[in-house]
Every structure is written in C-alpha cells, then in structure tokens.
Amino acid sequence: MNRLNFPGIKRKWLICFLEVSQTLHLSQAAERLHLTPRSLLRNLLALENKLATRLFIYTDRDDVVLMTEGIALLRLLSPINVQMQNLKGLPSDSALTFSQELALGWCSAWPIEVLPKLLEKLDSEFPDLYPRIHRCSQAQDLEQRILKGGLTLGLSCRQPQDPLLAWHAGSATPYVIAGLPQAIRPWHELNYVASTHSQAGSLHGPWDDLKFPRRIVLRVESFSGILDLASSGLAAAWLPLCLVSEFFKLQQMAMLASPPQEAALIPYLIWRADREISPLVQRTRSLLVHYIETELAR
C-alpha cells in the first residue's frame, strides 16, 4: 500500500480525490491543484468509473458530499495521505500529469475533417489530452474569444486586427462556383445561394456584386446551409475549394462555371502573443502550421 500500488488506478485520480475530500468543494480543490473544475471533475469521474462506485454526491453549487464508499476509500488511503500530498508538487513525475485542456477555435470557412486526425496525433503524444473545440461563424468572434482567454489557438479566415494577436498565414485556397454536377454554363446564368454575412472575415466569399452582379435567390446563415442547398441542385455557391474538394471527389458536386474574378481564402492560425505557450499548444501549433501550409493547398 505504501508504494501507491493500485492496479489500473492513476495516482493523479487519487490526488484529486484526496484534495476534494479535504475541501468538499470542486472549485477550491481545482484551484489548489492548478486545474480547471472541468478537468478535476473528469479525473474524479474516471476514478469512480474504474472503481464502479459513486464516491461523492455532486451538487449544483460546487459543493460535494462524501458517500459511504468515499469515506471508506479515504480511510484506506489515510496511511499514505501525507505521501500523496507531497507527490502533488512534483511536476517532473510524468505519472502525475493532469488532464491537459486544449481550447481550439475553428472558423467555419475551413473543413472540420482535419480535426479527428489532429486530435488522434495529439492524443498519441499527450495521453491526458482534453480537447475543447469551438466552431465560430465569423473571424471576429474567433479573435474575441482568443483575446478573452476562452480559446488558446484559432484557425481563422483573415489576418487578425488586434496587435495582441500573433498569426501565421498558410497557403491560399481558391474560390470556385460549385453545385450539383451539370453542364458548364456562363456564371451569370446561374442562380446563387449566398451567406447573410458580407464583411471581411465572414463566411461570404469576396465576390464583387457591383461589378459582377449575381442572381442570388437565397441567403442563409451557415456554411452547412449553403452546402446543403448547393449540393442538392437548388442553387450554385461561391465557396473555397478546400471546403468542397471532398464533394468533388465523390462526384456529389462540381464546378459549374468559370468565375469572372479570381479570389482566394488564406488560412490564419492565431494566438495571443503575450501568453506563455505550453508544450501541448506548441505541438498543436506546429501541426496546424503544417496543415495550413500543405494540406489546404491540395
């Protein structure tokens, strides 16, 4: 017992359990362990799942109550409680690495399919990875969330405006006129579905409707709505090639016309320049830089 030999149970779970047993309050325990309450709760639930029993009664005010099983475990751990408390302060002990949160923002202009590959790669290197993905409809929303600390990294569709934000630009992806496969026609003969947003950094492509007026029959809020309407044949859409390339491969969509103008969307990976970067964020940033420089250009 004094060797902390609990088969299948991680020491960090027991440390979390002991801290919460002392404070009986999730937020206070999380602060003392330098965790977010969500990460702390995740570790507690993992311990309960492994033991197949409830240890605490959780309330909606962050207060907890030790159940009979929790009291029994606390008594079982009492001979090594001091040792466990000492172990909390040893960051060099890899066995005590807590769940690492990754708060990643994703502008809807970019395909979401890369995320499973990204998270699989990160999970193999950071076993305690706890990802939070927030998809934003506009670049301005993404930038504000990073500035306020809600997100750590963001993949945007414009160069950030705030000097506190650092950025890395990737390879440009061209816009195309796409829709249900059909015979090629002049662009001005097509009906179009477009976004309700028109400002820079939104879902709306940089089409000059004053110089090249389109016949827009529908406007929708989301990219998914535009894709649904375009792929169903109800209208054509002016979209980044990277967003529809998979549809092209499956022959579910195709280029319908040659555009009268050239335009491209440039991916920007952004983060706060004044924040300390953890190894997890450094690795994520490295993988995303490779992605926006190579994968999106294909």
TrEMBL record:
Keyword terms: DNA-binding, Transcription, Transcription regulation
Key word Transcription regulation present: yes
GO molecular function annotation: DNA-binding transcription factor activity; transcription cis-regulatory region binding
HTH lysR-type domain ranges (all copies): 9-67
Transmembrane portions of the chain: none
Domain of life: Bacteria
Pfam family, any one: LysR_substrate
Gene3D superfamilies with a match to the protein in the record: Periplasmic binding protein-like II, Winged helix-like DNA-binding domain superfamily/Winged helix DNA-binding domain
The keyword DNA-binding is annotated on this UniProt entry: yes
InterPro entries: LysR_HTH_N, LysR_subst-bd, WH-like_DNA-bd_sf, WH_DNA-bd_sf
Family note: Belongs to the LysR transcriptional regulatory family.
Xref: PANTHER family: HTH-TYPE TRANSCRIPTIONAL REGULATOR, HTH-TYPE TRANSCRIPTIONAL REGULATOR ILVY
Protein name, per record: HTH lysR-type domain-containing protein
